Amino acid sequence: MSDSSRIIDGKAFAEKLRAKIAEQVAFLKEKHGFTPGLAVVLVGEDPASKVYVRNKGEQTKAAGMASFEYKLPDTTSQAEMLALIDKLNKDPNVNGILCQLPVPKQIDPQAIINAIDPDKDVDGFHVVNAGKLATGGEGLVPCTPYGCLLLLKDRLGDLAGKHAVVIGRSNIVGKPMAQLLLNESCTVTIAHSKTKDLPDEVRRADIVVAAVGRPEMVKGDWIKEGATVIDVGINRIEVNGKGKLVGDVEYATALPRAAGITPVPGGVGPMTIGLLLRNTLVAACRQRGVKLPD
Fold first, then answer.
1. Which of 166, 158, 147 is nearest to 185 (CA)?
2. Which of 11, 47, 83, 163 has the smallest count of CB within 10 Å of its CB?
3. Where are the domains of the chain?
């Protein structure tokens, strides 16, 4: 197997996904007379968040959806933000609500997440959606782990019986990723900072999902020959005085051992916005009582 055939191209997959979503949105407009709408709320001037919100807005519009952007000063109070969330919850033109994290210290992020109508929680972070994922209900699934799952199923097909190791236990990626894999009948291990002999745990895995936010923590020789590696990490390091993005996995040494691996950048990252648009589409159809177009 050549190195190029081992690379899992999340960018190409996400482009196809967004094209499909655009077709579905056009169908809804023509047949049912409504346009899915996504509202994104940004508080403050965090540079990375501003870039991310701009990209979300551009891709929302490119898919034919309505984009509502709310850019608030970093002095915004929690009460003011909650009032905006309440307004968006009640707006029938807004099918999805996303509050860009992080938020300034005077705002409790969990209070904001809890205030969003679970049916409009396109990030999938609300406790109701987390509970539905854990119990097999039809909720909205967090975008990044859902994107990871689609890449795995595209590469491997049926995941049943495979041993998956998820490194990281956050509510945003690690825990929902483990639940999604369990729902696919994988045998799942969640590894974290307290795990004893992490390299040995990883060496037994058919699937490795790394989501810890530590540059190249997972070494290439930890990867079992023929395993599939999904690297969620996006870390900026300096190499010869220049900035470079790397994942949580030591890519160069893992590549020749893996049957498939996501690069950084160009792997999981592009999938997140694609799944955000899909969640908005799903939410819009559910709220209108319309079947999701094929």
1. 158
2. 47
3. 34-118, 143-270
- Are 124 and 141 contacting, i.e. CB atoms less than 8 angstroms apart? yes
Cβ neighbours of residue 258 closer than 8 Å, sequence gap 6 or more: 6, 223, 226, 227, 228, 229
Residue closest to 139 by CA, chosen among 291, 289, 293, 279: 279
User: Does the annotation flag 169 for ligand binding?
Assistant: yes
Architecture of domain 143-270: 3-Layer(aba) Sandwich (3.40)
> Residues 203, 222: contact at Cβ < 8 Å?
yes
Radius of gyration, CA atoms only, the chain:
19
Average pLDDT score over residue span 122-145: 96
Fill in the DSSP letter of residue 50: H
What's the pLDDT tens digit per position in 166-209? 999 999 999 999 999 999 999 999 999 899 999 999 999 999 99
Q: Residues with catalytic annotation?
A: 56, 100, 123
The correct answer on CATH 3.20.20.140 for the domain covering 34-118 is no
Binning the chain into helix, strand and coil, the percentages to the nearest 5 are: 45, 20, 35
The pLDDT of residue 100: 93
Query: Chain centroid to CA 35: how far?
Result: 23
65's tokens: 């959806």
Secondary structure letter of residue 212 according to DSSP: S
pLDDT given at position 4 = 85
Q: Which long-range contacts (CB under 8 A, 24 or more apart) does 285-288 make?
A: 285/28, 286/119, 287/92, 287/95, 287/119, 287/120, 288/32, 288/34
Q: What are phi and psi of 291, to 5 degrees?
A: -70, 135
What pLDDT digit, counting tens, does each position of 261-282 carry?
A: 999 999 999 999 999 999 999 9
- Is 49 one of the annotated binding-site residues? no
